[in-house]
């Protein structure tokens, strides 16, 4: 059997080793830069929750780590291997990372068990029997040992997401990336998925979790990264970033997440927010100019 059991504990030496090292990462789509000089390090066994408003670049950051997106600049090292190096064997690096998306992306025509065995057989070249043994163990772990022969459509959203987690775990990843794994679920189904993730964290899995579940982040994360406008605004212990945020933008975001009806009158005049200030200045200067030079319909003429 070629599988490695999930570590049940991490030593202090293990925790010193960076599984992911991101240095000056930049990503642009066309002329729009959506990640600006991101630098962060995730150590073995660490659980890092990434929070931030829609469009702040959280998914793009995860996608640059497993090279679903090609970074425009900077480096991403996974276990010391530079995934941005053109000579890097990205399939080999990717096989060390499990990725769980908002949408579960299960194959609807395959059973739960088949969904969890296919990649093992193809990538790890495991025999069918071996892959099934690993898959059944992981389905048991996520509480779905009795649903192996069902098709995805016979399961609830929360159960399908747990199958997606079991599928990822069956590849023996060293690192799990989660992109809002519970945000497509009905509220009553969220708890079971978070319970599985909580258990993984307690077993020592290295995890990067994009989430809006602040209670989960506060309880489970070793660190919380708050992103806004393509930059890391705060990175620290959850008690500090969520409990005592230092930055106006973090406070505004948390107020909105914790109370969606909250309206912050200062939200658009944050003195620390250089990017917004620049956009604001550009907007104001554009408004000061006639839209069409010489346009006689412009009231300023
Ligand atoms: N393939 C793409 N082409 C062009 N722009 C993109 C692409 N993917 C993302 N973007 C843009 O990059 C920015 C960051 O997007 P991203 O999906 O990373 O944000 P996010 O923080 O994950 O948001 P959400 O919370 O809504 O999922 C957004 O402005 C988005 O429109
Ligand atoms: Mg996203």
Automatic annotation (TrEMBL):
In Pfam terms, one family for this protein is ABC_tran
The record's annotation in InterPro entries points to: AAA+_ATPase (IPR003593), ABC_ATPase_HisP-typ (IPR030679), ABC_transporter-like_ATP-bd (IPR003439), ABC_transporter-like_CS (IPR017871), MetN_ABC_transporter-like (IPR050086), P-loop_NTPase (IPR027417)
* Ranges for domain ABC transporter: 20-254
Q: Which residues form the signal peptide?
A: none
Q: Where is the composition biased (Basic and acidic residues)?
A: 273-284
* Gene3D superfamilies named among the record's database cross-references: P-loop containing nucleotide triphosphate hydrolases (3.40.50.300)
A single Gene Ontology MF term assigned here is: ATP binding
Instruction: Give UniProt keywords alphabetically.
Output: Amino-acid transport, ATP-binding, Cell membrane, Membrane, Nucleotide-binding, Transport
What does the UniProt entry say about where the protein is found? Cell membrane
The UniProt entry, under CDD domains, shows:
ABC_HisP_GlnQ
Residue ranges, annotated region (Disordered): 262-301
* Membrane topology recorded in Swiss-Prot or TrEMBL: Peripheral membrane protein
What protein family does this chain belong to?
Belongs to the ABC transporter superfamily.
Identification of the protein by name: Amino acid ABC transporter ATP-binding protein
């Amino acid at each position: 059997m070629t599988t490695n059991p999930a570590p049940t504990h991490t030593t202090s030496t293990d925790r010193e080793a960076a599984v992911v090292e991101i240095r000056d990462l930049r990503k642009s789509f066309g002329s729009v830069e959506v990640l600006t000089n991101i630098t962060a390090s995730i150590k073995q066994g660490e659980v890092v929750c990434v929070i931030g408003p829609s469009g702040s670049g959280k998914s793009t950051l995860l996608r640059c780590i497993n090279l679903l997106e090609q970074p425009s600049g900077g480096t991403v090292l996974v276990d010391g291997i530079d995934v941005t190096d053109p000579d890097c064997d990205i399939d080999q690096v990717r096989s060390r990372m499990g990725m769980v998306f908002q949408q579960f992306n299960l194959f609807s025509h395959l059973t739960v068990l088949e969904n969890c065995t296919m990649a093992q057989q193809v990538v790890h070249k495991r025999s069918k029997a071996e892959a099934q043994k690993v898959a059944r163990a992981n389905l048991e772990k996520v509480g779905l040992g009795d649903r192996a022969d069902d098709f995805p459509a016979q399961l609830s959203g929360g159960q399908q997401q747990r199958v997606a987690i079991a599928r990822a775990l069956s590849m023996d990843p060293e690192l799990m990336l989660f992109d809002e794994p519970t945000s497509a679920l009905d509220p009553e189904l969220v708890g079971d998925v978070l319970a599985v993730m909580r258990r993984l964290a307690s077993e020592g899995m290295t995890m990067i979790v994009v989430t809006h579940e602040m209670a989960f982040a506060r309880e489970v994360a070793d660190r919380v990264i708050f992103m806004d406008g393509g930059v890391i605004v705060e990175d620290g212990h959850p008690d500090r970033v969520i409990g005592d945020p230092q930055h106006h933008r973090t406070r505004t975001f948390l107020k909105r997440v914790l109370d969606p009806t909250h309206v912050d009158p200062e939200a658009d005049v944050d003195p620390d927010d250089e990017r917004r200030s620049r956009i604001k200045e550009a907007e104001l200067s554009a408004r000061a100019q006639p839209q069409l030079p010489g346009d006689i319909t412009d009231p300023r003429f």
